Amino acid sequence: MTSENIKSLELPDWVNNLLISLGGLRKFDPVGLSDIGTTDINCLCVYEDKYLEHKKLLVEALEQGTLRSLVIFNTHVFLLDSQTLDELDNLSKKFDIHLLAQGYYAKQYENLKVHHFEMEEHFISHHVNLLLTNRLQSRKKVQKTFLMQIVNKDNFRNTVIDAVAKSGIQADVLTPSAKTSSELIGIKENFFKNIKTDYGNNLDIMSALDGFGSGLPNFELYEKTFCEIVAETLNISGHAYMFTEKTFRPIAFGVPIIFLGSQDMYNTLLQYGYKFYDENFYQHWHDKKLSLSDKVKHLISFLQHIKESVEARSQMRSVAEANMQVFWNERKLYYYKNWNDIFDKICAGKNINRVIDVVYGELNF
Q1: Tens of pLDDT, residues 134-143
Q2: How close are the terminal C-alpha atoms of the chain, in Å?
Q3: Prediction pTM value
């Protein structure tokens, strides 16, 4: 039987290239909307927005049997709401549907095949960023205990910022001058413009720094501070979450962190192999019975403990060093293995043309 390629519908170039590379595929064969429902398609890959736009057409093709397997690439887990996810789970009782998710959903789905991946973590693990990490490690001269780079854009962040500002801890906290997301984006655009002017289109530098999104690292602040207070939140509806550069940036740099996220996010990071120094803080932070105002009181006490305890800072430093090893070694290896495992599952029983299998078979002299 002749093998075939996975079909794609209006897939962005960067997704197309990423999946070919990491999935060990030969290529995608593009199809148009007119082919959906009129042409026999073994397996089709679509981007999140195109699934939402053409959902009715794609579901009809599944139901009439002209489309046998559907793969949806979901970069922004917040984009697919609970109703859409429930619909996909229900459809998956009868059809082969795979969801490639950059993040997690609060609900566990019984039928839908969900595959998770961490692009932010991987993009930051560029070798240029490791060189920058080595520079930082050798130039640390701590002046303040805490770094807090939190944009005050919602009640959660505002409450944390206000509590720290009104506490005695504030004097031991450094914050960046940029306070809004638009300011951070402007800083990145200007920085990239200057880099291109001075060094040309250096793809290594550009791709390494682009991994931080709009949150480019401020090494002057990192040099002067011991640890970072990191705030990650669920989306507004609470049905999904994802990790951003805010979490993986300090971990990559070997900087101790206090992680202000949900318990699900905290537990996921533990599953990844990361650890956190804890002096009974996180049990209070994750206590659903406590109000946010009560939680931040425990936060301030925890920060005070870190500030005053030499032993606490020593343990945090050891944890950060271990996390840095996990980031640059175990997690980097896992990223590639995970993608291979994902496409092993997608391609199983479909006779898909995977160049990695061809090359493996021919390397037999």
Answers
A1: 999 999 999 9
A2: 25
A3: 0.93
